[in-house]
Design goal:
It is built from 15 helices and twelve strands. It is α/β, with parallel strands linked by helices and 312 residues long. It binds iron/sulfur cluster.
Amino acid sequence: MPAVVTDIVAEIQALKVREDATILAHYYQEGEIQAIADFTGDSLQLARAATQVTNGTIVFCGVHFMAETAKILNPAKRVLLPDLKAGCSLADSCPAPKLARYQEMLRENGRKFQTVTYINSTAATKALCDWVVTSGNAEQIIGRVPADMEILFVPDRHLGQYLQEITGRKMILWDGACMVHEIFSVGDLIRQQASLPGCITVAHPECPANIRSQSDFVGGTEAIIRFVATLPDSCDILVATEPNMIWQLERRYSNHRFHPVAGISCACNACPHMALNTLEKIRDCLESGSPEITWDPCFDRAGEVLRRSLLS
Ligand code: SF4
């Protein structure tokens, strides 16, 4: 590790003690950030981990809606997000006022429905919904929507399509997508598969149907980790999700070779929002206590929906 990185890591460790902090990091963060975290995970695991933190401060290395969720589920803690501009194209695609107007229009047309939101949404949007799902628990939560109700699924149309396929429930789908998963190139994937005979392809359900149908396994990041554990030694594994996930896979499974699937417009498909967090910003937010996620009135209602969906 370069000296400058070790210096920053040492500074962060000292500040963590001084500020009584726990660092949570998503699998899509740079490896050097995952390496210093107290806990790494997918959205569901991180939300649950946030409820267990006993230190006074949580430094959330992920994007804004995740840090909001941590604050909502453990309101007594100070929650810091290293870069407040770390957003999400999915959360941006479904602003609360637009969702409220659409729900009103459906009700005026006599439609009986419950609204299910992917966790990748703002707290204001969650506050308008009946359920929150992650890629890890979506199938189970969909089963809790009464059979005589329609489902309005927001904001990810690709995950919604996938859930329709595996649950058989018809859904009204919001027209949102993840800017990272939407741009995988099926042509490049087929070429990569041809160049690696016997390879296994794993894909996140935020990928479009043409990528999912070309894959051997579809699941959220935690499900991908569990699937790889079942494979025989020495596989070539093509990974169709944010490429920092490969750091986590290589750390656990050095017996395999992992290859990122290329994107149409970008060779790496890295999430530009996740990339805003850096070791320097983690140090600086611990030093200054800012940026901090502060309480908003919509957090009360969003909290009810989150707790019912993720913690019970
Ligand atoms: Fe949002 Fe996609 Fe980035 Fe995840 S990878 S934070 S869904 S833009």
